[in-house]
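Thread: quick sanity check before group meeting

JM: Hey all, I'm pulling together slides for Thursday and realized we never actually wrote out the predicted structure for the chain we discussed last week. Dropping the sequence here so it's in one place. If anyone has concerns about the input, flag it before I start.
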Amino acid sequence: MKKVISMLMTVAMLAALMVPAFALDQNTPSGDTIVKTSTTMEGGQDARRYTVTIPADTVIAWGAEKTELTGYTAEAHLAYGEKLSVTVSGNGNMVYEPEAGTTLALPYTLEGDTAYESAGPVVYPVATLALSVNIAADDWNAAVVGEYQDTLTFTAAIQ
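JM (edit): ok, ran it. Output follows.
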């Protein structure tokens, strides 16, 4: 009797593990299949991404009133309703320290895409942005010759 009950229990357990398969009936002329995208890439990373390329260190020729900073670009693939924003800031003065305790300043302004915001969630093809450093002729004429410098800060964010 135990063997029969054991056998019946085994068959019942196997029947419980069977998963029904749902397939299109061969006699039915059509069927529906849902195809959808994922918000993750094949490697599991978030599909939302952006790239902001900033100019490399730039040398400004002595006396140049306007120097273009080349290589400033943006590309984005974001979610619906999101936008890419990039801001650029600097101190407004390049400094030169000819000796300890002595600091000289050369004023400048930034011109161009210093506050960029994409029109939508996708920026493709790559947007080429404009940025220049402007130094007035009077400021050049009043400056002691030396290597003045400042650091520009690029801040990118998803809005």
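AS: nice. The first strand starts at residue 49 and ends at 53. Helices lie at 2-17, 137-142.
JM: adding both to the slides.
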